[in-house]
Amino acid sequence: MNTSQLPPREAMEFDTVIVGAGPAGLAAAIRLKQLAPAKTVVVVEKGSEVGAHILSGAVIDPIGLDRLIPEWRGEQTPIKTPVKADRFYVLGSSGGLRLPTALMPPLMSNHGNFIVSLGDVCRYLGRKAEALGVEIYPGFAAVEVLFENDAVAGIATGDMGLAKDGHHKAGFAPGMELRGKYTLFAEGARGSLSKVLIQRFGLNRDREPQKFGIGLKELWQVAPDKHRSGLVQHTLGWPLDNRTGGGSFLYHFDDNLVAVGFVVHLNYRNPYLSPFEEFQRFKTHPLIRDTFDGGKRICYGARAITEGGWQSVPKLVFPGGALIGCAAGFVNVPRIKGSHNAMLSGILAAEHVAAALAEGRGNDELSSYERSWRSSPIGHDLWRVRNAKPLWSTFGTWGGVALGTLDMWTNTLGFSLFGTRKHGKPDFATLEPAAKCRPIAYPKPDGRLTFDRSSSVYLSNTNHEEDQPVHLLVRDSALQRSSEHDVYGGPSARYCPAAVYEWVEEAGQPRYVINAQNCVHCKTCDIKDPNQNITWVPPEGGGGPNYPNM
Ligand SMILES: Cc1cc2nc3c(=O)[nH]c(=O)nc-3n(C[C@H](O)[C@H](O)[C@H](O)COP(=O)(O)OP(=O)(O)OC[C@H]3O[C@@H](n4cnc5c(N)ncnc54)[C@H](O)[C@@H]3O)c2cc1C
Ligand code: SF4
To answer: How far is CA 353 from CA 61, 243, 367, 516, 532, in A?
Structure first.
């Protein structure tokens, strides 16, 4: 059947459409229904179920949850492990220096926080939202923004049953239009539609570039004698060199579970660096490896995290909608926390949407939301740490972290010696040509503590319909060869945590292979490709990882 013979897409009308069922989207949906029960709210989620695509640490600051659901502490929730101990180490290759907690500014304390699976917290929030009457459509990706008179009028979900060559397979179902008076984009870090909106409405004009890290995580069931319920441990340093930002987290929670993860800042320069291999190597450190002795790795995944903070948050509003959560980039980098601000921004935006709907407005700009966030708890949280990331990027780990800590202390007292520093180049522009860099020899995995990427992706339960258009769009394949491969040595084969990209030799020529079905939707290629030549677009709804509790 050709497209002209198809019936028009089905359209449904709502008061508010929300893209993404993460903490931001679900908090917004719940708040809207609390304030205006008669108004209709729909949430679309590309994961096969709520929580399936959520990957986080996670130690959560409950400030957002307390505001949204004040009674949550008396309910059955997946939030069971309060933080009991907080340790911070700087690692060298064979030992580590434990930093006294007293050196850290109070804002870094995890007292009163909880260790959770953020995916499970989202499942809990999803149930809350549905009980209030929110319609949630998991397994549907929003692939297109609908515009009317240059205002956002909703989104369209992707077609289901489209073959790789464009023909309609049996059971083909066209996407749906979900139209709304307001549309909130809660897609998380590097949202694909949020990126389109930022460009179209120039939302990042006069802002610093957004910065990112890639976070890799494994979930382990450890031997009971290795489990220290409520222990939170962070490290800096080894195996990364002083010029490469990043660090690890290790959280002991629930029944003998340990979440271990590693973040590498995506402004790294050496194209030979592999964040995945750095993570594997980190686990072999003498201070770390013992935790996993006798344990079993049960899940793996990866996701980009926003790191630009205060100076990179784009304008949040445009006619007909707004950005919330990490689609805007509200992560507090030194605290490695964004879920509380994601929820707070969802709540804040919902309050402004509810007020506008009550006045009979629609499809206009929610300017009051934009005006309010910097003086809200989100702004307060981000302002005090605004120089931590740029100081780290400029002065390296040792100097930058020391200066960043000093700056967080002085900001706690109400002033800064550094003003508001700039981030400099966007992450795609920081790679150096391979010829100027040292190749890195990574040790082989042992299959017990360290692993390869294929067996890791297997543990992410990633699944995509195989016969569908590739969702990783390479704009110019000649450029990919002449620059990504010839100049930069093919960094995509190393930064992708799911072994999606490979350069293979065929008749003496390099050929770019894209194993799209492995993609865990971390968005790193969209961020780090040195020519911005790769665009991530949502595959068919329901595809991607199926994280049980990440
Ligand atoms: C490794 C790592 C560790 C972290 N540790 C912590 C921590 O310890 N504590 C903390 O507070 N924060 C932590 N964070 C940050 C935290 O996870 C984020 O700030 C938070 O998840 C942002 O919430 P969000 O709702 O904005 O986006 P997300 O949680 O990313 O949710 C977005 C949702 O939208 C869906 N979606 C996206 N695009 C579309 C589309 N086009 N159509 C339909 N659905 C779509 C996604 O599938 C997803 O379910 C960590 C992040 C990472 C990566
Ligand atoms: S293809 Fe891109 S989005 Fe998918 S896992 Fe690899 S780097 Fe992440």
So the answer is: 25, 44, 10, 38, 34
Where the chain has pLDDT below 50, the residues are: 1-3
DSSP-based three-state secondary structure for 466: coil
**pLDDT score at 7:** 66
Report the alpha-carbon distance of residue 145 to residue 193 in Å, rounded. Answer: 7
Are the CB atoms for 498 and 477 separated by under 8 Å?
no
Q: Cβ of 254: how many Cβ atoms within 10 Å?
A: 19
This prediction has a pTM of: 0.98
pLDDT tens across 143-162, in order? 999 999 999 999 999 999 99
Looking at the CA of 537, name the nearest ligand. 1
Residue 229: the pLDDT is 98
CA atoms of 33 and 40, how far apart (whole Å): 8
Closest residue by Cα to atom 2, ligand 1, is 56
Q: Are residues 119 and 550 in contact, defined by beta-carbon separation less than 8 angstroms?
A: yes
Ligand 2 pocket: which of 521, 534, 547 to mutate (most atoms <8 Å of CB)? Answer: 521
Q: Which residues line ligand 1 (CB under 6 A)?
A: 19-25, 44-47, 53-60, 118, 141-142, 186-188, 191-193, 215, 217, 261, 263, 303, 305, 325-327, 331, 336-340, 342, 538
Nearest-CA neighbor of 212 among 239, 237, 186, 190? Answer: 190
CA distance 283 to 261: 9
Positive or negative torsion for Cα 403, 399, 420, 532: negative
CB 60 within 8 A of CB 114: yes
